[in-house]
Amino acid sequence: MSAKKDYYEVLGVSRTVTPEEIKKAYRKLAVQHHPDKHKGDKKAEEKFKEIGEAYEVLSDPEKRPAYDRYGHRAFAPGSGGGGAGFHDPFDVFREVFNSSGGGASIFGDILEGAFGGGGGRRTSRSNQGSDLRYDLEIDFLEAVRGCEKEITIRRPMPCAKCDGTGASAGSKAVTCPTCRGQGQVAVSRGFFSVAQTCPKCQGSGQSIQNPCKTCHGEGRAEENARIKLKIPAGVDTGSRLRSSGQGEAGARGGPAGDLYVVLSVLPHPVFQRDEDDLHCDVPISFCHLALGAEISVPSLEGELKLKVPAGTASNKVFRLRDQGVPSVSGRGRGDLHIRITVEVPKHLTHAQREALEQFAKTCDESTHPEGRSFLEKARKLFQS
């Protein structure tokens, strides 16, 4: 039998390496040589075990000093060096990848399952009901003010015939003979085993002698359910409401899933929303801009009065504090932004036209200083 390689050499690190660098080196090599990427390759299998063995020793604060002093002899039988044997390399692999936030996607099934040579089986949750999604469209004002809605969904509910047990009257559930109540069975995949949901009891760990004829032993049947929802003020398109326990009923009395209601808010003909702020364009006449006026503007609470100073420019924005959308968190509210635009009359009477023409004759450069400044800049541009 060939001599074992130096553990530091196996991981490709120096003897002064830090514990974090050891873990990093192991992760890289474990991904590279994992048997799942080299199916049927015995060399890859042996290499993977060798890497796991080296990592277990060098990552252990007690075993590493013993190895540094005595080498492989520290773990030989009767050596007194603490050699209690090595764990399954897949336990090492799973521990490292779980502690560092998970591994590459190719290990998804392996990390989620239980290894035959590792610890015990995980408790199955396959009898828990699934979560449901419901898309709900609401009006703009319903969203900003809050409202109550009632929706109807079709979902699996506890079977009324057997009260959700899945068993007929006089019958009862017994320990599943296939998985022996564990809810999972070991399936061989090459040189290791993976735990999967028991096909006989669907993970419940129990088998029913005489299944209910209405739900066929599942303990649930589809029914229409009416659910009342309280929608808080300030929600917007994309807001998601969670109704606990209103999803699918669990199989054979298992816990129910949740219901997630995703909102879509219809647009408003007057207001445009930007988070908790509202924007609104209000057209007024040239005379009101020039002379000043007090105008009425819309808000969520009704009409408000806004004073427009004389000489206000078109597209001027006035901010009305705390007149926007209430925060969905319940703390404060946004602002209302009113943008003033000029409404140009399209049809003038003869008298109106004469009055405007007379006004135009009285205007000079001092009446429109911004226009004069613009023309001067334009002339200099073309003269250069």
- Round the Cα radius of gyration to an integer and report it: 37 Å
Gap between N and C termini, in Å?
92 Å
Shape: flat
As a percent range, the share of helical residues equals 25-40%
Number of strands: 15
Q: What can be said about the biggest beta sheet? A: 4 strands, mixed
Give the amount of beta strand, in percent: 25-35%
In words, what does this structure look like?
This protein is an alpha+beta fold. It contains 10 helices and 15 strands. Strands 10-11-15-14 form a 4-stranded mixed β-sheet. A 3-stranded mixed β-sheet has the order 1-9-8. Helix 3 crosses helix 5. The longest helix is centred in the N-terminal third of the chain and has 17 residues, at 42-58. It is flat. The N and C termini lie far apart (92 Å). Residues 80-85 and 102-124 have low confidence and may be disordered.
Give a brief description.
This protein has 10 helices and 15 strands. By secondary structure, it is α+β, with helices and mostly antiparallel strands. The strands form 6 sheets. It has a 4-stranded mixed sheet.
SSE arrangement:
Elements: H1 7-11, H2 19-33, H3 42-58, H4 63-70, H5 89-99, H6 108-112, E1 132-138, H7 140-145, E2 147-158, E3 173-175, E4 184-189, E5 192-197, E6 206-208, E7 220-231, E8 240-243, E9 259-265, E10 272-274, E11 277-285, H8 286-291, E12 293-299, E13 302-308, E14 317-320, E15 336-343, H9 350-362, H10 369-383
